[in-house]
Design goal:
The chain is α/β, with parallel strands linked by helices and 348 residues long. The chain has two domains: 3-140 and 294-316, Rossmann fold (3-Layer(aba) Sandwich), CATH 3.40.50; 141-289 and 326-341, Dihydrodipicolinate Reductase, domain 2. The protein has helices spanning 12-21, 37-52, 73-79, 96-103, 118-131, 145-154, 179-182, 185-188, 191-201, 293-307, 317-336; strands at 3-8, 27-33, 68-70, 84-87, 107-110, 135-137, 159-167, 204-212, 227-234, 239-245, 259-264, 267-272, 275-280, 283-288, 340-341. The strands form two sheets. It has a nine-stranded mixed beta sheet with strand order 14-13-12-11-7-10-9-8-15. Strand 9 (227-234) and strand 10 (239-245) form a beta hairpin. Helix 1 crosses helix 10 (293-307), helix 5 (118-131) runs antiparallel to helix 11 (317-336) and helix 9 (191-201) packs across helix 11 (317-336). It is globular. The two termini are 37 Å apart.
Length: 348
């Protein structure tokens, strides 16, 4: 069946999903919503311009995006006959959109972080569960071939330690640097690292974090931590740490450790994106794949909706809410100086 899809929010990350969906035969993007109509029009122009560049003499004409534009989300839900909605809005804008989509009984793809409060994420997760809807979230690292191979290698092994790194620069997006709007780097960006650690090692029971604003104090409107370090206690007994910073711009993050490093007896795995490095006694291997993890993620969601098979999705909303609970707990720990137990999501 053709899966009729609408979008809430048409900024940068939405463009990446749209570019994938026009290449998935079962996907039919029929509606775009944004508070500013011009963003929808711009998203369509950009994508269709990219598609035109793919035309080859005598080749098949690439699909174009021809979606109806809305500035009223509920009107889109009422009129467009949707099977699914992608919610691609800034962190502070989550909530009302998800509840409206759930009331309309459409499947949900919610970009990370799925909320800025555990209470809200719990309420949305419970509402999705009550309706029995397919859901997914934007943790594409779970879909990479490198991650698949890492999970195979870890099967049956006792993980002792996991180390996560997200060392980069300050994005230009104005809301990103405001704590109340983004939740901070760990919540909004390094959440990918935390989620991959959860996917490879298991749930996280408690955290202890330190954070500071050290190097970016003079940058206008920055009130997030620009450096942070979080000690993690996994439910399995393994321990870990996540280091994140946004002070390494202009290429200075080159060569720094990245992604997730997993340590078991006589085995070290370093996994991120399309790359997996395997170190064992007397041997080091590095593997690279060419697959597009975000494409695989979008394909899995479309197939899950078309076949009503939630098992095709590797990161349903409720699981993404567990990752959110970890990162919000780490933020709380850094601001209070206390060890914080990660709450259950949905809340009991």
């Amino acid at each position: 069946m053709a899966v009729r899809i609408g979008f809430a929010g048409t900024g940068g990350i939405a463009g990446a999903h749209l570019a994938n969906l026009v290449r998935i035969p079962e996907a039919e993007v029929v509606a775009l919503y944004d508070v500013e109509r011009e963003r929808c029009d711009l998203a369509m122009r950009r994508l269709n311009g990219q598609q035109e560049q793919l035309v080859r003499p005598g080749g098949t004409e690439p699909r174009k995006l021809q979606a109806k534009v809305y500035t009223d989300f509920r009107k889109m839900l009422a009129e467009a006959g949707l099977h699914a909605v992608y919610v691609c809005v800034p962190p502070f804008a989550h909530g009302e959109l998800e509840f409206a989509a759930i009331d309309a009984e459409v499947a949900l793809f919610v970009e990370k972080p799925v909320a800025l409060s555990i209470d809200l994420a719990s309420q949305v997760a419970e509402a999705i569960q009550r309706k029995g809807l397919v859901s997914s979230s934007g943790y594409q690292t779970r879909y990479s071939e490198a991650t698949d191979r890492a999970r195979e290698l870890l099967a049956g092994k006792t993980v002792a330690m996991a180390l996560g790194f997200y060392l980069g620069g300050l994005p230009g997006t104005p809301w990103w640097r405001v704590q109340a709007q983004s939740g901070g780097q760990l919540v909004e960006q390094a959440t990918h690292t935390v989620d991959l650690m959860r996917y490879l090692v298991g749930d996280i029971a408690r955290v202890y974090s330190a954070g500071a604003l050290r190097a970016l104090k003079e940058v206008p409107n920055v009130d997030i931590f620009d450096v942070a370090s979080t000690t993690i206690h996994f439910a399995s007994g393994a321990i870990g740490n996540v280091a994140n910073t946004s002070i390494l711009g202009s290429g200075t993050a080159s060569g720094a450790p990245a992604g997730v490093h997993i340590l078991a007896h006589d085995l070290r795995l370093e996994v991120w994106g399309t790359t997996l490095k395997i170190t064992s006694p007397g041997k080091t291997e590095e593997h690279r794949w060419t697959g597009n993890a975000m494409m695989a993620q979008d394909q899995a969601f479309v197939e899950a909706v078309a076949r009503r098979d939630p098992g095709r999705v590797r990161s349903p909303y409720a699981d993404a809410a567990k990752t959110l609970a970890v990162t919000l707990s780490a933020e709380e720990s850094a601001r209070t100086g206390r060890v914080v137990d990660v709450p259950k999501v949905p809340k009991p």
